[in-house]
Amino acid sequence: MGSVTARQVFEALARLPARVWFQAAFALVGFVVLAVLGFAVIAAVALIGLIVILVFKARAWLGALLAGRPPPQPPERTPRRVTDVNYVVVDKKDGDRSG
Q: Per the domain annotation, does 15 fall within a domain?
């Protein structure tokens, strides 16, 4: 079996009937439409989720604003005990492989 050149491939494609070309074109258009719709569905779900989150946040904020109570705050920090530690930096030489 010899190798097939690009010219032979193009000649074989040129001999295909028009029906095959139309089917290939419609399949390509269908594939693009499905890809766009799939992306649109993913984007729509993300947008709906974002809108739901923002609505709940806005309701809580507006409710607190109209009720006159302060917005919820994070809990107060508890004091921590800090221990002072001294560190020693040891310089290694390039040839030193110990440690």
A: no
**pLDDT (tens digit per residue) in 15-43:** 999 999 999 999 999 999 999 999 999 99
Give a yes or no: residue 93 inside a domain: no
Residue 8 included in any domain: no
- Cα separation, 11 vs 5, in Å, equals 10
Asked if residues 71 and 64 have their Cβ atoms less than 8 Å apart, the reply is yes
- Flag whether 54 is in a domain: yes
Residue ranges of alpha helices (H) inside the chain are 6-14, 18-67
Global pTM? 0.47
CA dist list (Å): 40 to 28, 29, 33 = 18, 16, 10
For residue 57, the enclosing domain spans 28-72
